[in-house]
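Morning!

As promised:
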Amino acid sequence: MAAKEIARISRPDPERFLRDYVRTRTPVIITDLFAGQPIDAIRTIEDASAAFGNVPMHVQTEYAVAASAPESAVETTMTFDEYWAHVRAHPDTALLCTEYEIPANIMQMFRLPEFCLADDLDRPEVLDMPRKYGDHDLCSNIFVANAGNRAHLHFDGDHRQVLLHQMFGRKQVLLFQPEACVDLRTTSGAPWSSGVYLERMSTAEQLDFIAEVGGYHAVLEPGETIYMPALIWHYLGYVDDAMSFNLRFKRNRYGRFLCVDNIHRDSYVQNLGSHLASDGDNPALAEAMPQIEAEYLRPAASLREKVSGMRAALRRACEQALPQTEPARFCPPQLDEQELDKIIADIGQTARYLDPELTAKSRPTGPISPVQKQTIRNTAARLGYSDELLEHLLWNRLGKSDLDALSKTEAVQFMVYMRSPGGALR
Ligand SMILES: [Fe+2]
């Protein structure tokens, strides 16, 4: 089998995008998603410096480097230009900007595509837990790093669909469907991380591996946007000094329930979640959910017992709804205890498996309050937003351009956005 190169298409209409790519979990590169918008004119580091060189960014030591040498790990704020001056002075720096809010100066240069909006606003949530991030449940991040950086092969736990837009520099993208988990040796690393080190392979070896296991590859060029299906395995390599941002969208009620806010990560959640994200109305998949919800609610003596019970319920669901993925192979019984240890180490210090009633009580509901509205207006004025820019940022960040239409939760999200280092207009 030859390694599959990810196809390139022109901006599809929303219906076709959802039917041909989201529904079928097929990655694709859109060559002109933001054609005609100001962001499309940013194709080099010089273009970016001229447009937003003085914008502050949150930078930190790369995750794996920080983990191996915590005493030298750094977390700070510097401007875009300062960051690149630092890279010139220290070409091997492990400092990068990753997974941080998109600064207002950059956010104003593009418009969130309509197809990113939720289409399930009238459907009840699983176990009645209110949406934590607003009606459209959106999230977005920027990434800025020097050549040679990479993100080790892993899958994300938020169950959202992803668009990754490359502004300047090229990025190598290698993807594998969730069902490749056995070949990706997921039991040898963290529960969401592969035991296969693509970063240690030559390009020819990477392509051989992709052909053997059945993956996808591409090098994303400036101005291009890749669609990555929810929960897909991804490896990203910085071919050049590069900048990109992602838009995370269209998570459905199942994804909100099964995501890392509530549940651990493993191959069962990943595989079931991937199919539910693309095809949530599939009866075989939907029928598997009540037993998982019941297990979630069942009292357990410890977190370990809870995770163990959930893994059994998720495995049964995979066996019933996705027999073709051969869930029995995901984790051989002799590795089950070791896998449980790793999951507990991964989530032990965080809040998961909370009582849905308590969760519901902790989340604000209802429309934006007059105080919130006034706070947003005052802060927006102080940060230099015009009315038009405020509407634009509300649209990109929350999928709503009318301040009056926000919920309390969305107002909180936006206030957090405005407080981020790049929140002010420069
Ligand atoms: Fe990721």
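Residues 160 and 251 are 5 Å apart (CA to CA).

Hope this helps with the figure draft.
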